[in-house]
Amino acid sequence: MEQERKLSKDADPEKDVQEGKSLPDQLQIEDPEEVKKQMQQILSKEELDRAFDARFPKEMQQKFRGARVAIAGLGGLGSNIAVMLARSGIGHLLLVDFDTVDVTNLNRQMYLVPHVGMPKTRAILQILYQVNPYLDYETVQAKVTPENVKELFGGYPIVCEAFDKPDQKAMLVRELLGQCPESTVVSGNGMAGVGDSNGIRTAKFGNRLYVCGDRTTDVGGGVGLTAPRVALCAAHEANKVLQLILQEDS
Amino acid sequence: MVTVNGEQKNAAGQNLLAFLKTEGYEPERVVVERNLDIVPRDELEKVVLEDEDVVEVLRFVGGG
Fold first, then answer.
1. Of A218, A238, A231, nearest to A164 (Cα)?
2. Which of A72, A156, A159, A238 has a CA 20 to 30 Å removed from the CA of A145?
3. CA closest to A192 among chain B residues
4. What is the domain range of residue B19?
5. Strands (E), A179-228
6. Which residues contact A182 (CB under 8 A, 6 or more apart)?
7. Domain containing residue A44
8. From the CA of B32, how many Å to the nearest CA of chain A?
């Protein structure tokens, strides 16, 4: 049941709300390009730039705007990382996933009920264009294999590993480190259950790999994956990406 | 002696794949660095550990 709780005193929420541009009653547009157009009509680039100016130093914004980041996997980790990086104004995101949104994804991934059944690459675009319709998003609906790693991610200075199966995670990290010498890899490893939040950490492994997670809790252990801990790990990955971008020329 | 994840192991002479299995690792779920180089999956069996090698084994768990 829909409920909006009213406060007893000074309970006039309308009073302080500035006149805004309202969203369509129901956002039923499926084509991400249409979503992008609609969002750009609602919010001008200048308006969004001014908001960024108010929040981030110019130099930081420019670095974020010029950055190129790839995300492999758009599940609990990848969908959260993508939204966080879009909110940060990362200029170009490559988003790769072969799968479609399933009901079982709703417990921790960014997707909403209307996305069920849709390819994750398409669903994430709908979401990202609503977060920031002025960034460059490239999607590839494909399964990552040792044979296509270089074609997909070659040339990307930063690649986020955001798969869920351990053999796939290991494969991607191994192949990226072996085949893409210019890429730094940020990976997620161990975030199942509801264990200690502070157990999730970021550690450097060799020169070009950062591993985020508790490194031990396996989803196979029957503890499941929950939104908070998956988002914690995703935030570790996204924050490492931002750190790497800001360090790049220094 | 071979240094594996910071620990001394009497593993010189073994191939990496055999060593990993002895230690209980699942080869598909690990990334192995030997003397700062990543060892490709299909070379694990060909690489024979030598005295003073430094090996890092990163084991992945499921979830994402």
1. A218
2. A238
3. B63
4. 2-59
5. 184-188, 201-205, 209-213
6. A154, A155, A156, A157
7. 30-247
8. 8
Nearest residue in B to A237, CA atom: B64
Tell whether B64 is covered by a domain. no
With an 8 Å Cβ cutoff, is B58 touching chain A? yes
ipTM over 0.90: yes
CATH code for position B26: 3.10.20.30
Mean pLDDT of A215-239: 94
Read off the pLDDT of residues A74-124 as tens digits, 9 standing for 90 and up: 999 999 999 999 999 999 999 999 999 999 999 999 999 999 999 999 999
Mean pLDDT by 10 residues, chain B (64 residues): 96 96 97 94 96 97 96
Q: Which residue of B has its CA nearest to A229?
A: B64
A218 with B61: Cβ contact below 8 A: yes
Q: For tokens 């990202």, what's the residue?
A: A128
**Residue B39 burial (10 A CB sphere; 0-12, 13-18, 19+):** buried
Domain count along chain B: 1
Q: Cβ contact (<8 Å) for A205 and B33?
A: yes
Residue from A207, A218, A233 to probe the interface with B (highest B Cβ count within 10 Å): A218
